[in-house]
């Protein structure tokens, strides 16, 4: 009887541990996604592109989608979106004052949509990267961002 009680206690403890670990993994993923959105938003550069951006929306959702939408003063709207499961690498071209961050995917996994463009009309296409203008970003921030994106990618792949 004593062995049975010990076995029951151990299996109960193991089950409880697994449940707690599952919640911890989910909160770590949420923490990574919040960090990525925060860094991209706080360093976003509205003034960098040739046309003036009226406003932008930059979201990293809890299911792993990175969405970037720019609204120009001319009425043109650009929308980019990809799932972080498809993330491959990032490149940054510029200085610590301003530059372009390229989030690269494994293939043509970035959805690109353009609306109200007087020159080219409405366009739907796919791309291999998403470019985000950044300002005042340090090399350490870029390194941390890359680490978080890689960890997020691995966590999202493990969930599938």
Record field, number of beta strands:
8
Termini Cα gap: 41 Å
Main beta-sheet annotation:
5 strands, antiparallel
Helix content: 25-40%
SSE series: HEEEEEEEEH
Signal peptide: 1-27
Keywords: Signal
Q: Would you write up a description of this structure?
A:
This protein has 160 residues and is an alpha+beta fold. The longest helix has 41 residues, at 2-42. The protein is elongated, with a radius of gyration of 21 Å. The chain has a five-stranded antiparallel beta sheet with strand order 1-2-3-6-7. The protein has a three-stranded antiparallel beta sheet with strand order 4-5-8, with helices on one face. The chain has helices spanning 2-42, 139-159, and strands at 53-60, 65-72, 77-83, 87-94, 98-105, 110-115, 123-127, 129-135. Helix content is 39%, strand content 36%. The chain has one domain. Residues 1-27 form the signal peptide.
Give a brief rundown of this model.
This protein has 160 residues and is an alpha+beta fold. It is 39% helix and 36% strand. The protein has helices at residues 2-42, 139-159, and strands at 53-60, 65-72, 77-83, 87-94, 98-105, 110-115, 123-127, 129-135.
How does the SSE layout of this entry go?
Layout: H1 2-42, E1 53-60, E2 65-72, E3 77-83, E4 87-94, E5 98-105, E6 110-115, E7 123-127, E8 129-135, H2 139-159
Antiparallel strand pairs: 1-2, 2-3, 3-6, 4-5, 5-8, 6-7
Helix pairs in contact: 1-2
List keywords for this structure.
single chain; 160 residues; 3-stranded antiparallel sheet
């Amino acid at each position: 009887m004593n062995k049975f009680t010990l076995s029951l206690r151990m299996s109960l403890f193991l089950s409880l541990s697994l449940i707690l670990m599952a919640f911890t993994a989910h909160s770590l993923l949420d923490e990574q996604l919040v960090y990525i959105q925060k860094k991209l938003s706080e360093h976003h550069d509205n003034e960098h592109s040739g046309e003036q951006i009226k406003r932008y929306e930059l979201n990293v959702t809890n299911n792993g989608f990175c969405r970037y939408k720019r609204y120009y003063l001319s009425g043109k709207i650009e929308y980019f979106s990809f799932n972080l499961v498809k993330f491959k690498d990032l490149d940054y071209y510029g200085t610590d004052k301003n530059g372009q961050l390229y989030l690269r995917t494994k293939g043509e996994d970035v959805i690109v949509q353009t609306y109200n463009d007087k020159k080219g009309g409405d366009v739907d296409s796919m791309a291999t990267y998403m470019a985000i203008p950044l300002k005042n970003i340090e090399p350490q921030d870029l390194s941390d961002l890359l680490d978080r994106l890689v960890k997020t990618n691995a966590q999202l792949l493990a969930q599938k």
